[in-house]
Structure formats: C-alpha cells, structure tokens
Amino acid sequence: MNHQQQKIEEAAASVNEKRDQVSRSPWKPAYHLSPPAYWMNDPNGFSYYKGEYHLFYQHHPFSPEWGPMYWGHFKSKDLAHWEEAPIALAPSEEYDKDGCFSGSAIEKDGKLYLMYTGNQWTGPDHDKDLYQVQALAVSEDGITFEKAAENPVIDSAPEGDIHPYHFRDPKVWKKGDYYYCVLGSRTKDHVGQVLLYRSKDLIEWEFVNVAAKGEGNFGFMWECPDIFEMDGHTILVMSPQGMEPEGNLYYNLHQAGYVVGNLDYETGILKHGEFDLLDHGFDFYAPQTMVDPAGRRIMIAWMNMWESHMPEQEEGFAGAMTIPRELILEDGKLKSKPVPELEKRRKNHKKYENVRVEGETALTGIEGNAVELMVTIDAEEASQFGLKLRAGHKQETELLYIKEERSIVLDRSMAGEGPGGVRKAEVELADNLLNLHIFIDNSSVEVFINGGEKVMTARIYPDQESSQVRFFSDKPVELLQVDKWDL
Ligand code: FRU
Questions:
Q1: Where residue 149 falls among pLDDT bands split at 50, 70, 90?
Q2: By C-alpha distance, which of 472, 467, 478, 474 is closest to 445?
C-alpha cells in the first residue's frame, strides 16, 4: 500500500468512528451535501465522468476544524441523490505534506485528472510562511487516484508582480488544442489577481499572463477562480478576500462573485465589466462550476463563511454545500436557478391558491425542516410583507420585502443558535409580484428571488421544533400560489 493509501485508510477509520453521532444531529442537512463527519470547505473537482457527476471537497477527517486538507468525495447519477465515495486525496508527499488544497477535475484520454494545490508550511505564520505548488492525480475508475510522477507540475509562481507563495486553486478546462488553467493569486503588495496558464498535455505548463487584476475595492487575494464561456462571453468567477463593505454589499468576511468579459486566449488578458455577487446572503464561498453533458453550466458553493461561528461543530461536523444551481446569462447578468433534478426528491405536495394575508398567518401543512417552498405574492397596497421561516417559540428567520427601498432583507438575528445579522439585496417587483423559491434544510435556507435574479443563502441553527412558516404583511396581500414539498 502506498503512503497516500495508508493515510486515506487512517482518515476513513477516523470518520467512521464519528459518523453515527453526526447522523443523529438535528442540524445535519437532509438533502444538502455535508461531510459524514468532521470538516468540509470548498467544492473541488466538480465534473462528469463515466456517466456520473463527481464532487470532491476540502476535508479535514480528524476534527470539525480546518486542518491538513484531504479531498472527500461524493458522486451522483442525477445531481439529486448522492453517494459517498472513499476519500480521494491525502497529503502524503513532500510537495503537499501540509494539505491537498483546492482544485478541479478534467477528463483526458478516458482518465479523470485532478489538478490541485500542494501546500507546505515553511514557518508558524500561515499568512506568510507557505509554499504552494500545483499537482496532478489521475484515476481510471473515478474512485482511486494516483499522484503523478511528474509532480509538482507547476513548482513555483511566475516572475513579475506576482506573490511567490499565495498561488493556488487551479481550475482547468480545454479549448482548441490546449488545456488552460486559471490560478488564484495576489500581487507582491496584496492586490487580488488571477493567472492564466496553458498546456498541451496537463504536465508541461506555460504561463500566459495575469488575466485579470483588481482595481480599487477588490480585495487582497482572489481565491478559487473559474473561467468559462457562455453565449460568446467569458465569465470569471472568483472569491475575493478582503473587500470593504459598500452600501448593501460585501458584509461577509470574504465575497464570491463574477465579472463578464472577453478573454483573448493569445495575450491571456481578460477585459471585463463590473463585479457582481453570486449570492447576497451570509454563507456562500468558493463556488465551482462544471458543464454537464446537456451543456448546462452548474455551480456548487461552500455554504459557510470563514471565521463564522458554526454551532454544528459541537455535533462533530462542519460545513455543507449549496444545492446545485444552473447559471444562465441574461442581459449581462448571471441568474442562478435550482437544477430541476431536485424535483425528483419532492414528496407530500401541499398547495394553496389565492389566499389573502393581513397581519400574520400560517397555512396548515406549509411547514417543515427539510422542505421546498414556492410562493408568489401580489404585493397590492402593502409596503412591507414577507415570510418567517423555521419559526417557533421565540425563533424565526425573516424574509422581509420593503417596497420603499425596493429591497429584500434576510434577517437571522432570531434564528436560533449561531451568528445573527441581516443581509439586504435590491429586488424590483415585476407587476407588483414577488416570487420566492425557497429551500430549507435542517440548518440552512436558500432563497431564489424572482427567477434567480438574486439568491440569498444562510446557515441557521434553530431548534428542531421551530418548523413553522408564517406569512405577514402590513396591509392585505394575496398569496397567488403557495406550494410546499418535503424533500
Ligand atoms: C478557499 C481556500 C482556498 C484553499 C482552500 C484551503 O476557501 O482558502 O484558497 O485552496 O480554501 O482549504
């Protein structure tokens, strides 16, 4: 057994000892991906290989805290039902001894390649004392991965105004005769940027250029970049660290969003427009996308935020993924929509039509801790109206539309345990209607507003008994339609 296999077995034994306890936690997600035990962060290697979707993730299999990173693994035939697969990568070699950091996957010659960052600490200060290289691992069955003999395939950051050590999270794709890869980086004086490389064989990599770099309030480091083409445009998705709050925006510790532009593959330069968030809630980071056999661009993100209090750690795990969201480019903006495959999980449909609400109302059967809700509200004369989710004795997570401000507010300050706070997003009503598509799971809520024009995501930690949904309004509104399914 090689060193990596040995480390994977030790990790599996550690996870196995804890999994029963975790499965009993009332905060363990019912239909979102979360680790069988211990720690999860970024989605990695999101891909489709031999008829199945694969999603790997940053995993620390020995505690519910971040630590030396392994790659955990799930696979799925339909994006709705997932199966746990064995841990795929362990930090086993000199070049990745302190962690197999984030990366991506691509199929080549019938094999599945993972490209990831090997992390080494060179001293006690994790912000400064690090060395990062890029490495490959390959599999013929999508389950067991061998690290490449040629590793590290990129052993140092390029020359120029490029920080020599903060150099990570390769996302690889193919175009024409080349494989391309984009990497997260910063300048020597800490301005976020991304680097473009190309290769004919995934082994020999040539640095092309700094594809994009922040100007103004754009963070000190861009993590987890992802570049793809959509309707003749190039989209760069990235996770800037350290943007300052502006108006309603950027109140999370770090951000995750995108720019739309055009990548010149010869010069390696991406000309692009303004940055926009991919989610306006609290817990959304390091999204990664893949294109599926039907040509859809699907995104999954880590449904947490760095340095945020995670009460689930007391239960032996930490971290979850968002549901898979399909990205669509409309009028220069990305919309996110839940993938329709999730409909396969629906049970116990309850439906109401044309219900008038004034004050506060609950509807029999519209409740639950692992449910999907679709609600269309005619705002009529109301100036403030909304929903309370996971409501119960002294707990609620409020979604409030404020007409005067043309904004929707997600308020988790009374949600239960865990961090509180408020996030606000601008939302225009069309024909005076507000359309909400809501996914509630045991410790999360994701709200897709007006067809995915805005999305707001939050981890919340209510009591199990707090499972009501209440509708409220300051003047009469009409619930044109309310649908609920258990998931
Ligand atoms: C983003 C990130 C990546 C890194 C990984 C380490 O959340 O910091 O840049 O590769 O997490 O776990």
A1: very high
A2: 467
- Asked which of 312, 341, 370 is the last residue of a domain, the reply is 341
Instruction: Give percent of the chain above pLDDT 90.
Output: 100
Does residue 69 line the site of ligand 1, with CB under 6 A?
yes
Q: Cβ contacts of residue 226 below 8 Å, gap of 6+?
A: 104, 171, 182, 236, 237, 238, 287, 288, 289
Catalytic residue check, 42: yes
Q: Domain check: are 336 and 352 in the same one?
A: no
Please give the order of strands across the beta sheet that includes 333-338.
285-291, 297-302, 325-330, 333-338
Angle formed at CA 31 by CA 25 and CA 36, multiple of 5 degrees: 50
Question: Which residue type sits at 359?
Answer: G
Place of tokens 């693994």: 73
How much is the pLDDT for 368?
98
> Which of 372, 352, 394 has the alpha carbon at shortest distance from 478?
352
Q: What is the mean pLDDT of the chain?
A: 97
Domain assignment of residue 55, given as a range: 3-341
Q: Is the pTM of this model over 0.85?
A: yes
State mean pLDDT over 412-438: 97
Of 169, 283, 288, which is best to mutate to test ligand 1, by the most ligand atoms within 8 angstroms of its C-beta? 169
Verify that 300 and 394 share a domain, yes or no: no
Domain count, the chain: 2
From 42, 96, 411, 441, active-site residue: 42
**Spacing, Cα 55 to ligand 1 middle (Å):** 16
Percentage of the chain lying above the pLDDT 70 cut: 100
